[in-house]
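Re: weekly structure request thread

Next one in the queue (771 aa):
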Amino acid sequence: MAKRIAVYLMGVSFALVVAQGASAQTISIAQGNGQLICVGCVGVNGYPFSTFDDVVVLVSDANGNPLPNATVTWTVRAADGLAPPAGSLLNGGSTTTGSTAGGPLCNLPGYSCNRYTGSDTGGNLLRVLAVTATYSGKSVTFTLTEVPPPNSNGSPNSINDFAITSPPSGTQYRGTAGSIAATPIQFMINTFSGTPVANVSVRLVPAPQTPAGSPTATCVSQAGADPGTVLTNAQGIATCNVLFGSTPSPNPNAYVQFQVLVGGVVNPQYSLNVNGTGAIGYALLNNLYELTVLPATPNALQLVSGNFQSANPSQAYAAPLVVKVVDGSTPPNPLINTPVTWSVSPVGSASVLPVNTSTDNTGQASTVVTLGPNAVGSITVTATTSNGKSASFTLGVNSQLTGLTKAGGDGQTAAEGQIFAQALQVQAVAPAGQSTANQAVTFTVTSGSASITSTNPAITNAQGLAGANVIAGNTPGPVVVTATLGALPSVTFNLTVSPPSLNLSYTNFLNGAGFFPDTSVGGTPTYGALSPCSIGTLVVGTPLNTATLPSAPNLFPAPLQYSAGASITFNPATTKEAAPILNVTGLNTPQTLITFQVPCDTTLNGNVPVSVTVNGTSTPAGSAPLVAVREASLGIFEIPMSDGNRRALLVRPDGSIVSLENPARAGEMVRMYVTGIGPTSPLLATASLPLPGVDTLSSAYYKAIAIGSQYNIPVVSERASPDFIGAYELTFAIPANAQANNNTVLEVGIIVNTGESMTYAQPLGSKIPIQ
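Done, posted below.
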């Protein structure tokens, strides 16, 4: 099932197909991601190695079982923006699970292997290749890195430094089997030129000649990496959280040693020479760590199910009591074959069968409880391990209850996210002389936006009273909470969630292209976030960060794209300048983004009061936030590219959009899109495009572009965009001597009036890829 989404950009409509739902079959990385080789290096005993080993995937069915005879397609591409790969895939572009050439792993059901062969370093280049395996529409990608040897023409791209930043060699690692050590191992790698090397695997291996069957440790697996490994990040740093294996040491004072292996694999498929660890890699670091794995002992019992039941005297409870025994790891691990003993209080009030149990493969143990004929009130059943760890169940004994009534808390109102002031309270009713204590009352939110925050079910006290605390959710409207006790008629509470008032400040108002705030209200800015006719973004709720930036630029043609559910008014008490709402995303969620145009006739008086209403909720009357409106607020429209990083939206002479795969060329003309360019001639009207056939130009005193270290690059042509509200087009030439780089800094500066020294510009500018 797929959903088609239309995207309008640069006057062209694109159709994106977004998959909905998920296939039951999966493909995952089994081995070979993050390999690092040194082309031309000659090592001892096979390392550092100069050719790649297998990359291996596992295809599984809906139940997680290996899937034989599945066809996997393979592709390889340059992931560094340089020349296409010079080598090839040994097994071609298609393989079948369970029957690919390679080592023993490649012939197992569900596994499929391939291998990149060839050299791409070109004598002194650092190359990064991406090998992608696809099955049934799902893909995984392996990163392979080639570096030249250190003596290759003095190449700055050869590996200069492997460094374990912490802890020092000789550090002792002692922990319970299956637990995670408190101290991680941190590792860094860079080249002679100081460039960090990303996506290189780091794993733990036994020191050479470690006896078979010894205790082991691995890194906590990173998503997308080989099992038990982590990858270096963009700064060349990897953090390995040490996971203790399941085999304990022969005694608490014994230890074995382990080391860090960089850029390699375990159980090599092709390589014949290994370093005595059962693994091969670019480097086996000299740091030796001491490993002691302690047997797992019960640390706690967790109640799984069966608590707060009720039954009649002489009857068994409907559900068995189930506990789970865990160790002291973080997160805790279940312990199997652990004895658990069950007991009852008061003695004689009930019986348990069996009394002595052992945990199963999930760490759980259970028993069945039957009430005695004279049981009253409630009973406690306790599960205990041999080392004294315990957990208790509270079980009710049914009395002759006749009803459940409301005792308080009905009819309340609370704002979104706030706790209702009064607890909801009910009272159990029984004939005179009958106990109403220790009865389990369950409170359930049956409609509306709210949740129970107190212990649930609630147990009645000696007076038969039980209560629940309720917190309002994020959706205004009525809420119904129902209280139930056994088969008695339920009790219903009616509550109301009211919308909160919006508490906003100038920091909620961002530039709609570069998503940056103003320097400060009342200060002298080196840049401004908003100016007349510019595009702005209002963030309501959770602050905007890099991970939640919109994926499409805020470019919207006339007529307006969105008008319901939100309004923004500048100077609400005087001129009442309404800001056109261009787009709203995330309405009624923790983060709402509202794209708007600053009214073109907004007065430049520094700080302007702005009132906001979102889905019926408004800023407090008379307390509108003050927002700075500057003469200019230049922001650069950006798009995320294939590596996930945001760069300037540029159009090449052939009309194509600049990207990592289609970079700008030195010497060619490109067109960029900005907002907040300042006063124009002729003047623009709010929510309007320029007059057809008339170029609306900036009247700024000075404007120039900088690319990298080259400044004062002239603007060849400019105009207000004829297609998008509040956007301007600037055309300029990429310098003929511009260096190839995927992250060349692009800046634009504007001085509005003669004699001014302040320059309005996007902080830190943007970036462009240049070939």
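DSSP finds no helices and 66 strands in the chain. The radius of gyration is 34 Å.
Next request, please.
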